[in-house]
Amino acid sequence: MYGRCMARTSPARTDVPDTAGSFPVTVDVVALTVRAGALHVLVVDRLLEPFRGQAALPGGFVLADETLEQAAGRELEEETGLTVPAQAAGAGPWHLEQLRTYGPLGRDPRGPVLSVAYLLLAPAFGLPAAGGDAAEARWVPVIEEGKPLAFDHDQILADGVERARAKIEYSPLAAAFCPPEFTVAELRGVYEAVWGTQVDARNFHRKATGTPGFLEPTGRLGGGGPGRPAELYRLASGVDPAAAVLHPPLLRSVSPGRVAPSA
Amino acid sequence: MYGRCMARTSPARTDVPDTAGSFPVTVDVVALTVRAGALHVLVVDRLLEPFRGQAALPGGFVLADETLEQAAGRELEEETGLTVPAQAAGAGPWHLEQLRTYGPLGRDPRGPVLSVAYLLLAPAFGLPAAGGDAAEARWVPVIEEGKPLAFDHDQILADGVERARAKIEYSPLAAAFCPPEFTVAELRGVYEAVWGTQVDARNFHRKATGTPGFLEPTGRLGGGGPGRPAELYRLASGVDPAAAVLHPPLLRSVSPGRVAPSA
DNA sequence: TCGGGTTATCGTCAAATTGACGATAACCGG
DNA sequence: CCGGTTATCGTCAATTTGACGATAACCCGA
After folding, report:
1. What is the least distance, in Å, from the CA of A47 to any CA of chain B?
2. Which has the higher per-residue pLDDT, A261 or A39?
């Protein structure tokens, strides 16, 4: 089997104990966005075995000379045509962070494979015309989630969604789902979509605009729909949305069972 | 992309691209405990190159047929003599969770190596007599942290400490630092040590005992020192400390800079 | 046995925050 | 101009926080 070939280190590496395994490593990306008021995840249809024809998270093998982040960006681009801006891990609207690593055993029929999962939060946008070799990349709502995904991707997706739900409570990362300038209502729509709950518009407005280090008014107005035009905001300048902490946090209300979410 | 181009080198399997790297994988464990009111981390002195003689987090290579958790427990035991109870990931006082994975490039002079870091929270205890092949395993206070650690272990340690600090706000995991039955004062000592701040004893008592799903009185009293004996508590039954969420959380006060902690 | 030292626990109270919801402002389309 | 719609501002009671006083219940040494 494939695993046998990988069970030994290369002869050049004499300083690594030869009982140590060497593993193929993949990255898988949980790309989330909010479209039409619902949380969506990006999936591709697999063209090859294993799990041929089944939907899966975009991802693939890490090359020998790239970082995990580079691999995540490359695979995403190859399979979905999405180009993650370089500033995704920084101040921009996009946000890419490591989710967790899924163990080598029992998750790939080809043998032991390690998978490092990444979480991408991005504003809604259309997909470029099915670029690369991916048969089909599409956004699907995370609820309903019809058929199961390939590999252990259902578990990875669940972990990613739970991470996103928790993270927007304590960090300004909900803004990663919005364009660079957005209204308070758009931001509230993100919370409602990610949490799957209703949020009172008036209290949310007070809380969001009143939390230091979160929003910064641009002075401009966002027009368009019916009703009074809303003020446009951007993320507070000088704030790293990946590291900043909201004080006090925007807590989900104590609705149903708040115990053991991802157990 | 899981299987685009096909291997020329691996005759047994043709579904893994030969550009895909295969990486040696290590686990490193950030084992934290509270002793004498200060947060301590477990380190070992390296006997071999690279970084020979320097302190490092316990860890080592993952074998071909074990899970990451198994590797973490095995390395910890081999290098420090500590045996992680099987229930560490469950209801017991110990707590072992994955921290994050550190990329293959530029972190090991021997070449690309992936490291999956784990975070262990444990009650204070003495080390078994330097078992295994470890020259020396010892607890060192995380502040002062005299010389730098080997590899990128300073970064891993910083990430682990920050994870612990954040996690005890929203989960009952502070109890992982305590024996199975503990007093409110002991628990408060954990918060003070991990956060490095002072916590008002009266408000903490009110909050800790008043938060549903956190503490459960045993009826027994903890004697010993001077002063009035304190009631003994245990974690609320039926609560998985790794998954449960405290509502409302025990927030650190807004003291100094609460922005970009581990950046 | 008594008093002083020490720690645990319970109360009190003003300030801040939350949650629910009314009221008004500012736009749209007819 | 008028209703429909959404944004924003206020109000108010209930809850929570933070600061800190007051007791309770143990230890020890005299």
Report:
1. 9
2. A39
Of B77, B136, B216, B231, the active-site residue reads: B136
This model's pTM is above 0.85: yes
For the ranges A12-16, A21-25, A70-74, A81-85, the lowest mean pLDDT is seen at A12-16
- Cβ distance B260 to A244 less than 8 Å, yes or no, reads yes
DSSP-H helix ranges across A196-255: 201-210
Nucleotide nearest to A231 (CA to C1'): D7
Q: Does the CB of B226 sit below 7 A from strand D?
A: yes
Angular region, A186: left φ>0, alpha ψ -120 to 50, beta rest: alpha
Size of interface A-B (CB pairs under 8 A): 183
Across all strands, nucleotide nearest A229 (CA–C1'):
C27
The torsion defined by the Cα of A65, B14, B25 and A97, in degrees rounded to 10, comes to 60
CB atoms within 10 A of CB B245: 17
Asked if B1 and B15 count as a contact pair (C-beta separation under 8 A), the reply is: no
Residue B92, Ramachandran bin (φ over 0: left; ψ between -120 and 50: alpha; else beta): beta
Cβ contacts of B112 on chain A, cutoff 8 Å: 64-65
- B258 CB inside 7 Å of strand D: no
Rounded to the nearest 5°, which phi and psi values hold at B257? -70, 115
Catalytic residue check, B231: no
Could you tell me if B107 and B113 are in contact, meaning their C-beta atoms sit under 8 angstroms apart?
A: yes
Q: What integer is the mean pLDDT of A203-211?
A: 97
Residues (pLDDT < 70) of chain B are 1-19, 86-92, 129-135, 144-145, 254-263
- Name the one residue in this structure whose structure tokens are 């316990």: B58
As ranges, strand C nucleotides with an atom below 7 A of a protein CB are 5-11, 17-23, 25-29
- Residue with smallest Cα–C1' gap to D24: B228
Give how far B76 is from chain A: nearest CA, Å.
16
Can you give the pLDDT at residue A1?
35
